[in-house]
Design a protein that fits this description.
The chain contains three helices and eight strands; from the N terminus they run αβββββββαβα. It is α+β, with helices and mostly antiparallel strands. It starts with about 25 loop residues before the first helix and ends in a 10-residue tail after the last helix. The protein has helices spanning about 25-40, 135-145, 165-170, and strands at about 45-50, 60-65, 75-90, 95-100, 105-115, 115-120, 125-135, 160-165. The chain is globular. About 30% of the residues are buried. It has one domain: Peptide deformylase (Peptide Deformylase, Alpha-Beta Complex). It binds nickel (II) ion. The site of nickel (II) ion (NI) has 5 residues, from helix 2.
Length: about 180
């Protein structure tokens, strides 16, 4: 168990297309996932993608009961998602604020699909298949973007709504640096 360093925007390793995983439930993978949860929890993150710790695999984790960085967000089940495929369930999109552990100190208003279906595998190779909306759908889209080398600032349409978290949201705990 260990907390890994999180790569920050500007590192070219965040811009790669991640490789699919072909073997499940290996000791290496289970140790990696444990480290990812340790790293996400240490940073109060809502999610984390393997490329953010320099591992170029199609693996994301997300979920929380209550999140200090997004105090108004409803709970999202703790999930390990491997080789994910996302399919929007309608043309509807919505905008909301996002941050990223690889872009510390900033938030931006990002358009996302409102409702989507996602499918993939958990670490044991079981199929994960869900229809989701709202913040859950947003988190999945954000994390899976990391697997295609996309960081949320690349999705921002209105840069007048991109700024420093402590200026935009002074009520958030100052101990959270992103
Ligand atoms: Ni991120």
């Amino acid at each position: 168990m260990s907390v890994r360093d999180i790569l920050r925007m500007g590192d070219p390793r965040l811009l790669r297309q991640a490789e699919p995983i072909t073997r499940f439930d290996t000791s290496d993978m289970n140790a990696l996932i444990e480290d990812m949860f340790d790293t996400m929890h240490a940073a109060n993150g809502a999610g984390l993608a393997a490329p953010q710790i320099g591992v170029n695999l199609q693996l994301v984790i997300f979920g929380f009961k209550q999140n200090a960085r997004y105090p108004d967000a409803p709970p999202v089940p703790e999930t390990v998602l491997i080789n994910p495929v996302l399919t929007p369930l309608s043309d509807e999109t919505e905008e909301n604020w996002e941050g990223c552990l690889s872009v510390p100190g900033l938030r931006g208003m990002v358009p996302r699909w409102t409702r989507l279906h996602y499918e993939g595998f958990d670490q044991y190779g079981n199929i994960v298949s869900r229809d989701v909306d709202g913040f859950h759908a947003r988190v999945v889209q954000h994390e899976c973007d990391h697997l295609a080398g996309i960081l949320y600032p690349m999705r921002i349409k209105d840069f007048s709504r991109f700024g420093y978290t402590d200026i935009l949201f002074p009520e958030l705990d100052a101990n959270h640096d992103d």
